[in-house]
Design brief:
Elements (H helix, E strand, L loop, with lengths): L1 E6 L3 H10 L4 E6 L12 H11 L4 E4 L6 H7 L9 H7 L2 H10 L7 E4 L2 H11 L3 E5 L9 E4 L3 H10 L4 E5 L5 E9 L5 E3 L3 E6 L2 E7 L4 H17 L4 E10 L2 E8 L9 H4 L4 H9 L13 E8 L14 E5 L9 E9 L2 H20 L1
Parallel strand pairs: 1-2, 1-3
Antiparallel strand pairs: 4-7, 5-6, 5-7, 8-9, 8-10, 8-12, 10-11, 11-14, 12-13, 14-16, 15-16
Length: about 350
């Protein structure tokens, strides 16, 4: 039985644990190492983790904010998947944009911002609106500022100016999608269907499995295949795109299992978590076939719904992350699957009514 260490002990690691036994794998998760403000850790901390992880067969991770230096040292004695180079690229939005450009994947305009004068020049070159983001440590809408007029330059600089920044031109997109795929150690790739994402205050709220134009699906699969091959990637990868006039503009990638793939637990033949473990463990990847005509996921954001409230549904699957309720915190998710469009729509309405009722208690 292969022993796999997972760095990070949140809900993504927990969902990997749930499929490990069926794959004859032993998974152990660990809290993140002690990390300094700049994202690094001390030599003694690195040595501590190298010693702790040396007896595992494989090391993987559920979150991006892990010191690359630590993983490189661990990798000298234990294989680390996904590729450390992919993680290092994803940790810096500038490096990420440059990688996409090098691979010929369409993205919006971008430039670094190191001073207020750079921000003023960006406003001149891009026009309003545009967005600035911290190059590191941003997620779920954090570390970002949308500039809509000249008056925002001072405000944005005061809020984020102490960080290394990247400015991006605004894409007046029609909607957002994400493409998830998994790659094995021998280079086999399986694609999940392109999914549409809806956000609330910068946090993913809903993911819908829909039928998209074939050309759009091909764009997404070709893009993610380029990234997977470039990094000699192993495991599950997610890439988010903006869609404008049936053209994809890449936003960012996540070198791990991803929130927009949680629907696959109940709506696909093989979940993204299972395929991630299959990939990193050297096993053959599973089929990604969608098992119902209608599939969606609802994130519970600062909300909680108990199992007993959903007992009357036979097509609703609740996953609670066991956290204490806090505003804008991902508390869990609900997957809804059905082969009947009428049943599906009615169920979605009823589930949202329950969510709202719970919020009022």
């Amino acid at each position: 039985m292969k022993k796999i260490a997972i760095l990070g002990n949140g809900q993504l690691a927990a969902m990997m644990h749930e499929v490990s036994a069926k794959l004859n794998l032993e998974t152990t998760d660990f809290p993140l190492p002690e990390i300094k403000a700049d994202g690094s850790c001390t030599e003694s901390e690195i040595s501590h983790w190298v010693e702790k992880l040396k007896n595992f067969d494989v090391v993987t991770y559920e979150i991006e904010n892990i010191p690359v230096a630590l993983l490189k040292e661990v990798n000298k004695s234990v294989p680390v998947y996904p590729a450390i180079s992919a993680l290092e690229t994803a940790q810096d939005r500038l490096a990420e944009k440059q990688a996409f450009t090098k691979l010929g994947i369409k993205t919006n305009q971008f430039m670094t911002v190191d001073s207020k004068s750079d921000l003023q020049k960006t406003a001149h070159d891009f026009g309003f609106p545009f967005i600035i983001k911290t190059r590191r440590f941003g997620y779920d809408g954090k570390g970002q500022y949308v500039l809509k007029s000249k008056q925002d330059i001072e405000l944005a600089w005061n809020e984020l100016g102490e960080h290394a920044l990247l400015a991006e031109s605004f894409v007046p997109f029609d909607y957002e999608v994400s493409q998830i795929a998994a790659r094995s150690v021998v280079g086999d790739i399986v694609f999940y269907p392109l999914v549409r994402n809806e956000h609330r205050e910068g946090i993913l709220r809903e993911t819908h499995v829909l039928d998209f134009p074939e050309a759009l699906t091909e764009q997404a699969q070709q893009s993610i295949q380029k990234v997977l091959t470039h990094f000699d990637y192993v495991g599950t990868l997610a890439i988010e795109f903006f869609v404008k006039d049936n053209v994809l503009y890449v936003n960012e990638m996540a070198p791990r299992v991803h929130n927009s793939g949680h629907w696959s637990i109940d709506g696909a033949k093989t979940s993204q978590f299972e395929n991630h473990l299959r990939g990193v463990a050297g096993q053959k990847l599973g089929a990604t076939t969608v098992t119902s005509n209608h599939v969606m996921m609802i994130n519970l954001i600062g909300e909680d719904v108990t199992d007993d409230r959903l007992e009357s549904f036979n097509n609703v699957y609740l996953k609670s992350y066991g956290k204490s309720v806090r505003a804008n915190r991902k508390m869990g998710h609900i997957n809804i699957v059905s082969n009947s469009e009428t049943e599906f729509k009615n169920t979605v309405d009823k589930v949202y009514a329950l969510i709202e009722a719970e919020a009022c208690l």
